[in-house]
Please model this.
Amino acid sequence: MNRFFADRSQFHDGIVTITGEDVNHIRNVLRMRPGEKVLVSCKDEWEYTCAVMPYSVPDRVDLKIVDAQKPGRELPGRIYLFQCLPKSDKMDLIVQKAVELGVFAVVPVSSKRCVVRLNEKKADAKVRRWNAVAESAAKQSKRMIVPEVFPVCTMEEAFALADREEIDVRLMPYESAENMDATREILGGVRKGSRIAVLIGPEGGFDEQEVRGAADRGFSVITLGRRILRTETAGMTVLSILMYLLDT
Model:
């Protein structure tokens, strides 16, 4: 069944009212007929099986709730991927795969060695695109929520956000880090229910001052092994490990 997302404000008297772009998708792309079934997910992680009701007005679709369930597909913890801006369209892939792996939110970060520099207008357009990618990936992977892609921020703003979100575990993979045993111990200490930040550098890596600044803000500098991973690979590696640890 096709999946859509709705806020609690769209629920009323056993009916979910769909508006916006999803209306065109249901009516004109999928060409759904009254009585056909869809799934609707809400941020409270409940999933609703709904039937399309007869179309009454052109700018909305009403869905009648026929069943509700809480399948528990979300990870028992919140992972925030702080991703320094990569070149070209790599961020699209990073957002897509991060959502599939269970990330709670993606925070694009502009660090010293980022090649990409976005002005406010371009940054806003990129963030809108990345949120659309996140929604598409959430539907495909049957997520119960759509992970948010935050506005682009600086490193210092990223540290402040980690503080505001009350992050419990702060991880910073770094190509010059050593001691895999220490990394295993840190990752092995991650507990269900934790809020976790994963800070990934750009193609040029982190500046040493950024590494010291992150360590001062509670980030554990870890190694991912003897091989140098691309920026789009490093985050997926950590997220895969965390998914395994939290989902077991």
Remarks:
- Helices lie at 21-29, 90-100, 120-140, 155-164, 180-188, 208-216, 231-247.
- The chain has a mean pLDDT of 93.
